[in-house]
Structure prediction request, 99 residues.
Amino acid sequence: MNNPVVAINVYSVPKDKKDEFLKWWYVMKDTITYAPGFIRGRLHRSLNADARFNFINVVEWENSNYSQAYENSIPLMKSQLTQIDGEATPELFSIASQY
Prediction:
């Protein structure tokens, strides 16, 4: 079995658009959780009301075969976020150490 791939998406969402972002994210999340290879995911919300990056999504996938599907989804995700003046910084990682 391959090591899991971890997708980490860091979001910057204007304070007055957080509800719109969460509505968008729940729709997007529903499509991800049914994708082949999905293991688990968590959306984190900053405790600092003034944080530049106020949401972070961490998703684990079974293997690197998901990489291409992930790369293909980035342009759509970013274009949808611009509609609410949000920004995303997505990246794929491999696990370097577990503790």
User: Anything to note?
Assistant: The chain has one domain: 5-94.
